[in-house]
User: Fold this.
Amino acid sequence: MEIELQLDDGRVRGVVAGLRPYRAGGPRLAVEHLGQKIVAHNYGHGGSGITLCWGSCLEVLNLLGNHLSPGLPVGVLGSGVMGLCSAHLLSQRGHPVTVYSKEFPPNTTSNVAGGLWAPTHLGLEDDELRDRMLRETWNTYLSLDSKRYGISKVPLYETPDRSHPLDPFPDGITPEPSTMARLPISGYVGECLYSETLLIQTPRFLHQLASDIEERGGAFREYEFHHLNQILELPETLFINCLGLGAGRVVEDHAVRPIRGQLVLLEPASESFIIDHSAGYVISRPDMLVLGGTFEEGVEDSEPDPEMCRTILSENRRVLLGKN
Ligand SMILES: Cc1cc2nc3c(=O)[nH]c(=O)nc-3n(C[C@H](O)[C@H](O)[C@H](O)COP(=O)(O)OP(=O)(O)OC[C@H]3O[C@@H](n4cnc5c(N)ncnc54)[C@H](O)[C@@H]3O)c2cc1C
Assistant:
């Protein structure tokens, strides 16, 4: 397949930025008792929340064990990918769920995510846990109706000089990457690695999760947390904390810090694929073509910087099309 990549100014639809909820040491998956209430923490997934969501939520439900007695109402804090996957799994098991959050899709960091299935900026040193969550998430995505949830298997092209090499996938998930004599883009000279991964159309996926939860009787309630003690006022006895970056402040976890990412969004191309190269990446989804991107550690401002976005566009053009 020869890719016709069009990155003209006229195809730009917008720019977007988001703050990855990075946590030094990896996500916090742990159960805590607060008076009569129980909270399971599920936050701090950095640049890998879409890649780990199902696996991470299942780990947390397993940690809760017998506390999750049949039919027990559960409160879920946060409505990003972690909150929605948790509420989805709980409602599937027959638990009445209420999602408490200050923002809902489309206004979450999870909606900003490009949707590449690949672990990156995760910070987790427990390889066994990491691989288990990755496998669980991969298999769950594949079990879903791909059209309804916006999931597809796509070619992944990586140039040897890519700026942020992806962390390795667990053995046996995808075929071993093979070397191609050239990246299949008109005008590009140079070899690349070819393999496959999943592409998740994040807005569609999150929307579908929310409507499944609603269909099963789940409720969504606007609520802002300033401190975890606020759960003492809520009617449920068991909670899952999926506040992402917000968890850092709410539970005073100083290991949580933002890594800002900026993206340029363009008119969609006719094929779906992913290219990871020396000056950024291209995620070609059916709903839009996403150009990345930045990894700005400690930046707390979630507004896109127009100058940086112009650079993302011109760097992608320079490397892939040989022009500015
Ligand atoms: C530019 C960019 C590209 C990315 N690309 C990818 C990718 O391709 N693949 C991938 O796997 N990951 C990617 N990520 C990372 C991914 O987006 C995150 O890991 C993921 O969104 C984290 O999900 P979450 O549910 O924990 O957090 P969020 O989506 O941030 O959800 C947190 C929820 O908690 C709520 N909340 C927060 N604080 C409070 C409070 N005080 N009171 C009440 N509610 C609160 C929020 O409103 C929100 O509903 C990307 C991130 C960025 C920024």
In short: Residues 18, 20-21, 43, 45-51, 78-83, 101-103, 108-110, 112-116, 223-225, 242-246, 250, 261, 263, 293 surround flavin-adenine dinucleotide (CB under 6 Å). The first helix runs from residue 49 to 64.
